[in-house]
Amino acid sequence: MGKFTHLKGSDLEVARTWSIRSGMNPIKKVAQILKRHLSNLLTYFEHPISNGVAKSLNSKIQGIKSRERSFWSFEGFRNGIFFSMESWI
Question: Does 41 lie in the same domain as 57?
């Protein structure tokens, strides 16, 4: 079980209600964002995995694609990726 499983819905609702009644617009905005994404946030704390590695790999491939606009074929593009992967490992 995650670290934040002891939080009850009522605790979170009290905090959200306070933030909305505070009258401070930046705090209200954060409360609305947290309300929209609360289930995803709590899921992350229960199962702490992310897609950061996949995003990083995709970013490197996109960088290769923009640098090497002279690929004539998919095979050339693929070889460019494999050639660049030497430095990733």
Answer: no
Residues 59-68: tens digit of each pLDDT:
888 887 777 6
Asked if residue 4 is part of any domain, the answer here is no
Query: Roughly what angle, to the nearest 10 degrees, separates helices 74-85 and 52-67?
Result: 120
Has residue 41 been placed in a domain? yes
pTM for the predicted model, two decimal places:
0.43
Around Cβ 65, how many Cβ atoms within 10 Å? 13
Say if CB 64 and CB 84 are below 8 A apart: yes
SS (H, E, C) 42-62: HHHHHCCCCCHHHHHHHHHHH
Displacement of CA 33 from its chain's centroid (Å): 15
Spell out where the chain has E strands. none
CA gap 13, 9 in Å, rounded: 6
Could you give the CA distance from residue 54 to residue 51 in angstroms, rounded to a whole number? 5
